[in-house]
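pls design
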């Protein structure tokens, strides 16, 4: 059994789009022209976006920010993710998903890889989804504090 968390990404034009928004896969396996499996190392943080539509419009818009877990470790099941993951953020509905994507863009604009952001930030993003809130709630100073804390905790 592998220590990697596998995510199946799928793209069917104008129907289904399951994709990784950020994260560092360590392996990639192509199944066919529409499907791939990306594998993440233990402890990796990644964002998994799922979107589905039908002839009448969008059916599902969802974003999950997950931390990869070891096989046998306690985790939540997430469709297309094996064995599952530790959920840092789970939201559905296009307005909320779009807001989180804007927050991810803001982190990247600071020159920070969202996969390196403090996990606690993702836990609390849902509290900052009001339309008036500045999406730049994560700062370089906060990130430096997180990196220092992580270094000390090791």
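designed seq:
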């Amino acid at each position: 059994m592998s220590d990697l968390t596998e995510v199946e990404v799928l793209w069917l034009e104008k129907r289904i789009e399951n994709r990784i928004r950020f994260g560092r896969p360590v392996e990639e396996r192509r199944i066919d022209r529409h499907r791939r499996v990306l594998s993440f190392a233990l402890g990796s943080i990644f964002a998994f976006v799922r979107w589905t539509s039908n002839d009448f419009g969008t059916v599902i818009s969802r974003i999950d920010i997950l931390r990869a877990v070891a096989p046998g470790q306690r985790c939540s099941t997430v469709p297309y993710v094996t064995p599952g993951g530790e959920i840092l953020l789970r939201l559905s509905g296009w307005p909320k998903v779009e807001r989180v994507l804007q927050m991810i863009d803001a982190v990247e604009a600071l020159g920070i890889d969202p996969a390196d952001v403090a996990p606690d930030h993702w836990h609390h993003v849902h509290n900052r989804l009001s339309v008036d809130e500045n999406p730049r709630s994560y700062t370089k100073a906060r990130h430096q504090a997180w990196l220092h804390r992580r270094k000390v905790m090791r």
